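Field guide to reading this record: the first block holds the primary sequence, the second block holds the structure written as C-alpha coordinates, and the final block holds curator observations. Each block starts with its own label. This record concerns TIR domain-containing protein, catalogued under organism Paenibacillus protaetiae.

BLOCK 1 — SEQUENCE
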Amino acid sequence: MDKRYTAFISYSWDGPAHEEWIRNLVNDLRSQGGVDATCDQFEVQEKTVNLNKMMINAIRDNDYVIVVLTSSYAQKADDFQGGVGFETMLSLPALRTEPDKFIFVMREGDYAAGFPYHLRDYYAINFSNDVEYKQKLDELIRRIYKKGKFEKARLGNIPDFGVMLPDNTQVQEVSTYKSVFDDLDLPSANKISDLAKKKFINGSFIEICRLFEELFEQMSRKTSGFEFSSEQIDNQKRVFLLYLNGNQVSGVKIWVGGLGYNTNSICLSYGNHISVRSDNSMNEIISVDVSQHNQMALKMTLSFSTKDESMTPEKIVRSIWTSSLAYSFKL
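BLOCK 2 — STRUCTURE
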Protein backbone atom coordinates (compact mmCIF):
# COMPACT_ATOMS: atom_id res chain seq x y z
CA MET A 1 0.00 0.00 0.00
CA ASP A 2 1.33 3.44 -0.91
CA LYS A 3 2.29 5.87 1.83
CA ARG A 4 -0.31 8.49 2.78
CA TYR A 5 1.46 11.79 2.02
CA THR A 6 0.83 15.13 3.72
CA ALA A 7 0.97 18.50 1.95
CA PHE A 8 0.61 22.15 2.94
CA ILE A 9 -0.44 24.77 0.39
CA SER A 10 1.54 28.04 0.49
CA TYR A 11 0.05 30.98 -1.39
CA SER A 12 -0.57 34.71 -1.42
CA TRP A 13 -3.89 36.16 -0.29
CA ASP A 14 -4.79 37.63 -3.71
CA GLY A 15 -8.54 37.92 -3.18
CA PRO A 16 -11.71 35.83 -2.60
CA ALA A 17 -11.61 34.09 -6.00
CA HIS A 18 -7.99 32.98 -5.54
CA GLU A 19 -8.64 31.84 -1.97
CA GLU A 20 -11.61 29.75 -3.18
CA TRP A 21 -9.38 28.19 -5.88
CA ILE A 22 -6.89 27.24 -3.14
CA ARG A 23 -9.64 25.59 -1.06
CA ASN A 24 -10.81 23.64 -4.10
CA LEU A 25 -7.25 22.48 -4.81
CA VAL A 26 -6.87 21.27 -1.21
CA ASN A 27 -10.18 19.36 -1.37
CA ASP A 28 -9.39 17.85 -4.79
CA LEU A 29 -6.02 16.61 -3.53
CA ARG A 30 -7.79 15.03 -0.55
CA SER A 31 -10.81 13.52 -2.36
CA GLN A 32 -9.23 12.58 -5.72
CA GLY A 33 -5.62 12.00 -4.71
CA GLY A 34 -5.86 10.64 -1.18
CA VAL A 35 -3.35 13.31 -0.09
CA ASP A 36 -3.70 14.68 3.46
CA ALA A 37 -3.58 18.28 2.20
CA THR A 38 -4.42 21.47 4.07
CA CYS A 39 -3.88 25.24 4.07
CA ASP A 40 -4.20 28.11 6.53
CA GLN A 41 -7.89 28.67 5.70
CA PHE A 42 -8.79 25.28 7.18
CA GLU A 43 -6.35 25.49 10.08
CA VAL A 44 -7.56 28.85 11.46
CA GLN A 45 -11.21 27.79 11.54
CA GLU A 46 -10.48 24.75 13.71
CA LYS A 47 -8.47 26.33 16.54
CA THR A 48 -6.58 29.41 17.72
CA VAL A 49 -3.46 29.58 15.54
CA ASN A 50 -0.15 31.43 15.78
CA LEU A 51 0.39 32.00 12.05
CA ASN A 52 4.19 32.17 12.23
CA LYS A 53 4.36 28.95 14.26
CA MET A 54 1.88 27.31 11.87
CA MET A 55 4.14 28.13 8.89
CA ILE A 56 7.23 26.80 10.68
CA ASN A 57 5.47 23.55 11.56
CA ALA A 58 3.96 23.23 8.07
CA ILE A 59 7.32 23.48 6.30
CA ARG A 60 9.07 21.26 8.84
CA ASP A 61 6.47 18.52 9.38
CA ASN A 62 4.70 17.98 6.05
CA ASP A 63 5.99 15.69 3.32
CA TYR A 64 5.42 18.41 0.73
CA VAL A 65 4.93 22.16 0.54
CA ILE A 66 2.97 23.11 -2.58
CA VAL A 67 3.76 26.73 -3.50
CA VAL A 68 1.13 28.45 -5.67
CA LEU A 69 2.90 31.13 -7.69
CA THR A 70 1.27 34.40 -8.80
CA SER A 71 2.68 37.83 -9.58
CA SER A 72 1.53 39.02 -6.13
CA TYR A 73 3.28 36.07 -4.47
CA ALA A 74 6.50 36.82 -6.38
CA GLN A 75 6.51 40.49 -5.38
CA LYS A 76 5.90 39.71 -1.69
CA ALA A 77 8.57 37.01 -1.70
CA ASP A 78 11.17 39.27 -3.32
CA ASP A 79 10.36 42.08 -0.86
CA PHE A 80 10.05 39.71 2.16
CA GLN A 81 6.57 41.09 2.88
CA GLY A 82 4.01 39.60 5.26
CA GLY A 83 3.35 35.90 5.57
CA VAL A 84 4.79 35.15 2.12
CA GLY A 85 8.02 36.93 3.09
CA PHE A 86 8.23 34.93 6.32
CA GLU A 87 7.62 31.66 4.43
CA THR A 88 10.32 32.65 1.92
CA MET A 89 12.89 33.09 4.69
CA LEU A 90 11.84 29.76 6.22
CA SER A 91 12.07 27.93 2.90
CA LEU A 92 15.55 29.12 1.85
CA PRO A 93 17.53 26.65 4.05
CA ALA A 94 15.08 23.83 3.25
CA LEU A 95 15.42 24.47 -0.51
CA ARG A 96 19.16 23.80 -0.20
CA THR A 97 18.82 20.64 1.90
CA GLU A 98 15.40 19.23 0.85
CA PRO A 99 14.54 20.58 -2.62
CA ASP A 100 12.19 17.65 -3.39
CA LYS A 101 9.93 18.71 -0.49
CA PHE A 102 8.75 21.70 -2.57
CA ILE A 103 6.35 21.47 -5.52
CA PHE A 104 5.71 24.67 -7.46
CA VAL A 105 2.36 25.42 -9.11
CA MET A 106 1.91 28.37 -11.48
CA ARG A 107 -1.58 29.91 -11.30
CA GLU A 108 -0.88 32.75 -13.74
CA GLY A 109 0.56 32.30 -17.24
CA ASP A 110 3.43 34.80 -17.10
CA TYR A 111 6.57 32.97 -15.97
CA ALA A 112 8.60 36.17 -15.62
CA ALA A 113 6.07 37.85 -13.31
CA GLY A 114 4.97 34.78 -11.34
CA PHE A 115 8.34 33.48 -10.18
CA PRO A 116 10.27 35.06 -7.26
CA TYR A 117 13.92 35.72 -8.03
CA HIS A 118 15.22 32.73 -6.05
CA LEU A 119 12.84 30.25 -7.77
CA ARG A 120 13.36 31.18 -11.43
CA ASP A 121 15.33 28.02 -12.25
CA TYR A 122 12.65 25.64 -10.89
CA TYR A 123 9.95 23.78 -12.84
CA ALA A 124 6.31 24.57 -12.03
CA ILE A 125 3.11 22.76 -12.99
CA ASN A 126 1.11 25.24 -15.07
CA PHE A 127 -2.44 25.61 -13.69
CA SER A 128 -3.07 28.93 -15.48
CA ASN A 129 -5.56 27.42 -17.98
CA ASP A 130 -8.69 26.23 -16.14
CA VAL A 131 -9.63 24.03 -19.12
CA GLU A 132 -6.56 21.86 -18.35
CA TYR A 133 -7.24 21.71 -14.60
CA LYS A 134 -7.93 17.94 -14.42
CA GLN A 135 -4.84 17.15 -16.48
CA LYS A 136 -2.62 19.34 -14.28
CA LEU A 137 -4.20 17.97 -11.08
CA ASP A 138 -3.29 14.47 -12.27
CA GLU A 139 0.30 15.64 -12.88
CA LEU A 140 0.44 17.14 -9.37
CA ILE A 141 -0.89 13.96 -7.72
CA ARG A 142 1.57 11.82 -9.71
CA ARG A 143 4.41 14.11 -8.61
CA ILE A 144 3.41 13.67 -4.95
CA TYR A 145 3.36 9.87 -5.24
CA LYS A 146 6.41 9.79 -7.52
CA LYS A 147 4.39 7.84 -10.09
CA GLY A 148 5.35 9.23 -13.48
CA LYS A 149 3.06 9.01 -16.50
CA PHE A 150 5.84 7.67 -18.72
CA GLU A 151 8.02 4.65 -18.06
CA LYS A 152 11.70 4.44 -18.95
CA ALA A 153 12.85 1.41 -20.93
CA ARG A 154 15.01 -1.17 -19.14
CA LEU A 155 18.72 -0.68 -19.74
CA GLY A 156 20.11 -3.08 -22.29
CA ASN A 157 23.62 -4.49 -22.55
CA ILE A 158 26.51 -2.24 -23.55
CA PRO A 159 27.34 -2.96 -27.22
CA ASP A 160 30.58 -4.73 -28.12
CA PHE A 161 31.96 -2.39 -30.76
CA GLY A 162 34.93 -4.63 -31.65
CA VAL A 163 37.07 -1.76 -32.99
CA MET A 164 40.43 -2.96 -34.44
CA LEU A 165 43.23 -0.55 -35.34
CA PRO A 166 45.57 -1.32 -38.23
CA ASP A 167 49.18 -2.08 -37.29
CA ASN A 168 50.42 1.21 -38.75
CA THR A 169 47.81 3.38 -36.97
CA GLN A 170 49.19 5.70 -34.32
CA VAL A 171 46.90 6.83 -31.53
CA GLN A 172 47.68 10.36 -30.44
CA GLU A 173 47.01 11.32 -26.87
CA VAL A 174 45.00 14.48 -26.34
CA SER A 175 47.02 16.63 -24.02
CA THR A 176 45.31 18.67 -21.30
CA TYR A 177 46.87 22.06 -20.72
CA LYS A 178 48.19 22.53 -17.20
CA SER A 179 49.51 25.83 -15.97
CA VAL A 180 52.32 26.20 -13.46
CA PHE A 181 49.94 28.51 -11.55
CA ASP A 182 47.17 25.92 -11.09
CA ASP A 183 48.07 25.63 -7.40
CA LEU A 184 47.31 29.32 -6.69
CA ASP A 185 43.99 30.20 -5.02
CA LEU A 186 42.84 32.73 -7.63
CA PRO A 187 39.61 34.74 -7.13
CA SER A 188 36.48 33.98 -9.16
CA ALA A 189 35.38 36.52 -11.77
CA ASN A 190 31.73 36.38 -10.68
CA LYS A 191 30.55 38.27 -7.61
CA ILE A 192 27.86 37.40 -5.09
CA SER A 193 24.96 39.86 -5.44
CA ASP A 194 23.54 41.94 -2.59
CA LEU A 195 20.24 40.07 -2.96
CA ALA A 196 21.99 36.72 -2.57
CA LYS A 197 23.71 37.99 0.59
CA LYS A 198 20.39 39.26 1.95
CA LYS A 199 18.72 35.91 1.42
CA PHE A 200 21.69 34.09 2.96
CA ILE A 201 21.49 36.33 6.05
CA ASN A 202 17.72 35.91 6.35
CA GLY A 203 18.01 32.14 6.09
CA SER A 204 20.83 32.11 8.66
CA PHE A 205 18.77 34.29 11.02
CA ILE A 206 15.91 31.78 10.94
CA GLU A 207 18.29 28.87 11.53
CA ILE A 208 20.04 30.60 14.45
CA CYS A 209 16.66 31.33 16.08
CA ARG A 210 15.59 27.72 15.58
CA LEU A 211 18.82 26.41 17.15
CA PHE A 212 18.51 28.72 20.17
CA GLU A 213 14.97 27.45 20.72
CA GLU A 214 16.18 23.85 20.43
CA LEU A 215 18.98 24.58 22.93
CA PHE A 216 16.61 26.16 25.45
CA GLU A 217 14.09 23.33 25.09
CA GLN A 218 16.92 20.89 25.86
CA MET A 219 17.81 23.01 28.91
CA SER A 220 14.17 22.84 30.06
CA ARG A 221 14.29 19.05 29.95
CA LYS A 222 17.66 18.65 31.67
CA THR A 223 18.01 21.62 34.06
CA SER A 224 15.69 21.79 37.06
CA GLY A 225 14.01 25.18 37.47
CA PHE A 226 14.95 26.44 34.00
CA GLU A 227 12.27 28.04 31.82
CA PHE A 228 12.31 30.36 28.83
CA SER A 229 9.97 32.56 26.85
CA SER A 230 10.17 33.38 23.15
CA GLU A 231 8.67 36.41 21.41
CA GLN A 232 8.68 37.01 17.65
CA ILE A 233 8.74 40.82 17.44
CA ASP A 234 8.54 40.76 13.62
CA ASN A 235 9.92 38.72 10.74
CA GLN A 236 13.45 39.97 11.48
CA LYS A 237 13.60 40.22 15.26
CA ARG A 238 13.18 37.64 18.04
CA VAL A 239 13.70 37.77 21.81
CA PHE A 240 14.35 34.89 24.23
CA LEU A 241 14.17 35.49 27.99
CA LEU A 242 15.78 32.90 30.30
CA TYR A 243 14.56 32.15 33.83
CA LEU A 244 15.88 30.08 36.72
CA ASN A 245 13.42 29.25 39.48
CA GLY A 246 11.12 31.96 38.14
CA ASN A 247 13.74 34.73 38.13
CA GLN A 248 15.09 36.19 34.89
CA VAL A 249 18.82 35.58 34.72
CA SER A 250 19.63 36.28 31.07
CA GLY A 251 18.22 36.68 27.59
CA VAL A 252 19.03 36.87 23.90
CA LYS A 253 17.75 39.35 21.30
CA ILE A 254 18.45 38.57 17.64
CA TRP A 255 17.66 40.86 14.73
CA VAL A 256 18.70 41.53 11.14
CA GLY A 257 20.76 44.72 10.64
CA GLY A 258 20.99 47.63 13.08
CA LEU A 259 23.14 50.56 14.28
CA GLY A 260 23.95 51.86 10.81
CA TYR A 261 25.00 48.47 9.47
CA ASN A 262 23.37 47.27 6.28
CA THR A 263 20.81 44.50 6.31
CA ASN A 264 23.45 41.93 5.35
CA SER A 265 24.26 41.34 9.02
CA ILE A 266 22.71 39.74 12.10
CA CYS A 267 23.00 41.47 15.48
CA LEU A 268 22.72 39.88 18.91
CA SER A 269 22.33 41.35 22.35
CA TYR A 270 22.45 39.10 25.40
CA GLY A 271 22.40 39.44 29.16
CA ASN A 272 19.84 40.48 31.74
CA HIS A 273 19.09 44.00 30.47
CA ILE A 274 17.77 43.64 26.92
CA SER A 275 15.79 46.46 25.31
CA VAL A 276 13.13 45.22 22.90
CA ARG A 277 12.50 48.68 21.44
CA SER A 278 16.04 50.01 21.01
CA ASP A 279 18.57 48.32 18.73
CA ASN A 280 21.39 50.75 19.51
CA SER A 281 23.55 48.33 21.48
CA MET A 282 24.68 44.81 20.73
CA ASN A 283 27.21 42.21 21.87
CA GLU A 284 27.80 40.60 18.48
CA ILE A 285 27.50 41.40 14.78
CA ILE A 286 27.45 38.48 12.34
CA SER A 287 28.37 39.40 8.78
CA VAL A 288 28.59 37.60 5.43
CA ASP A 289 32.06 36.55 4.39
CA VAL A 290 32.56 35.68 0.70
CA SER A 291 35.55 33.54 -0.24
CA GLN A 292 37.61 33.94 -3.41
CA HIS A 293 35.51 31.14 -4.90
CA ASN A 294 32.20 32.88 -4.10
CA GLN A 295 31.32 30.66 -1.15
CA MET A 296 29.33 32.50 1.52
CA ALA A 297 29.90 31.91 5.23
CA LEU A 298 29.12 33.69 8.50
CA LYS A 299 31.65 35.59 10.64
CA MET A 300 31.35 36.82 14.22
CA THR A 301 33.01 40.23 13.98
CA LEU A 302 33.13 41.18 17.69
CA SER A 303 34.38 37.89 19.13
CA PHE A 304 38.15 37.77 19.57
CA SER A 305 38.23 33.99 19.73
CA THR A 306 36.26 33.35 16.51
CA LYS A 307 36.46 36.54 14.44
CA ASP A 308 38.82 34.99 11.88
CA GLU A 309 36.80 31.77 11.50
CA SER A 310 34.07 30.91 9.03
CA MET A 311 31.07 29.99 11.15
CA THR A 312 27.85 28.01 10.74
CA PRO A 313 24.64 28.85 12.64
CA GLU A 314 25.27 25.90 14.97
CA LYS A 315 28.83 27.03 15.77
CA ILE A 316 27.56 30.55 16.49
CA VAL A 317 24.90 29.33 18.94
CA ARG A 318 27.43 27.06 20.67
CA SER A 319 29.96 29.90 20.93
CA ILE A 320 27.48 32.39 22.41
CA TRP A 321 26.18 29.82 24.90
CA THR A 322 29.65 28.83 26.07
CA SER A 323 31.14 32.32 26.26
CA SER A 324 28.20 34.46 27.38
CA LEU A 325 25.14 32.56 28.63
CA ALA A 326 26.19 29.39 30.44
CA TYR A 327 27.79 31.24 33.37
CA SER A 328 24.35 32.56 34.39
CA PHE A 329 23.38 29.00 35.31
CA LYS A 330 26.76 28.04 36.83
CA LEU A 331 27.16 25.15 34.43
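BLOCK 3 — OBSERVATIONS
The first helix runs from residue 16 to 33.
Residues 194-329 form one domain.
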